[in-house]
Design goal:
Blueprint lengths: L1 H8 L11 E2 L2 E2 L4 H6 L1 E4 L11 H11 L6 H10 L15 H13 L5 E5 L7 H16 L3 E5 L3 H7 L2 E6 L2 E7 H8 L2 E7 L16 E3 L4 E6 L8 H10 L4 E8 L2 H10 L3
């Protein structure tokens, strides 16, 4: 439902109900003003083949009623490492280069809201990093950026807020840091020197999970509180004469949280 939702906001698809306001403008009653506020980088590459990069990006600016501004177009192309390709015909470019031209088109009319619909698809690692640098600069300049991606690590790295869509329903929108704190967890795993048949009563209060045929203990803890409980747990293990040979700590990633959210029964 991500692309459908973006298409509605951008006026490409007509919604069957509801209201969408873009930077204070209703997308149906005040379509032209709303659309001028929005830049869109779609999933599909839709570019003319015989025009040059400069022509394509400049023409896109004109479509939104903006007067010619060669200095702005030059800045956009340089920011996206496209300046040396400004006179190249679109048909001669690689897929990654064409993706960057799509971003340049979306930025040509200086939008206040920028939709990036899986922009890193088909872009190599080096070009992707250039692209994210540009995105960060736009965000810092006050542009609102909505990024859709299947690469959860990108969302974890780039986003201030995270929304999760499952089967067409927006099931969550939250600040990333708050989401990680609320639904994430830290986990400590202890490799025991000797297998345990069962947890002794003195350890029941810690909510431990016994696994690997009694050779592994897993403890979930919260680092936000005053006490993680780790020191108390280790003291209790010592008092119970339970020795361990190794320990490891892990933290839930945004991808773990996403998978748990979409797999929850409705």
């Amino acid at each position: 439902g991500k692309t459908t939702l973006i298409s509605i906001v951008c006026g490409i698809v007509t919604a069957s109900g509801g209201t969408v306001i873009a930077d204070g403008h209703d997308i149906q009653r005040d379509y032209r003003q709303a659309r001028m506020k929005i830049g869109l980088v779609p999933q599909e590459l839709t570019l003319g083949t015989y025009d040059t990069v400069w022509q394509v990006v400049s023409f896109s600016r004109g479509l939104f009623g903006k007067s010619a501004d060669p200095a702005h177009i030059e800045k956009v192309l340089k920011d996206l490492s496209l300046w040396d390709k400004k006179d190249a015909k679109i048909r001669t470019l690689s897929g990654g280069m064409k993706r960057r031209v799509m971003i340049a088109k979306a930025l040509s009319h200086e939008p206040k809201i920028l939709f990036l619909d899986e922009p890193s698809a088909g872009v190599d690692v080096q070009l992707r990093e250039h692209m994210w640098q540009t995105v960060r600069a736009l965000r810092d300049s006050g542009v609102t950026i909505i990024l859709t991606t299947h690469y959860i690590e990108e969302a974890e790295q780039m986003a201030d807020r995270v929304g999760v869509i499952n089967h067409g329903e927006l099931i969550l929108v939250e600040e990333k840091r708050a989401l990680m704190q609320k639904l994430g967890k830290k986990q400590m795993t202890l490799q025991l020197a000797e297998p345990l048949g069962a947890l002794p009563p003195s350890l029941q209060r810690f909510g431990l999970e016994l696994g690997q045929d009694g050779r592994e203990l897993t403890y979930d803890y919260d680092t936000r509180g005053d006490h993680s409980g780790i020191t108390t747990l280790l003291d209790a293990l010592r008092d119970a004469n339970i020795a361990f040979t190794d320990l490891d700590t892990t933290q839930t990633s945004l991808e773990d949280i996403f998978v748990n959210l979409v797999q929850r029964p409705k």
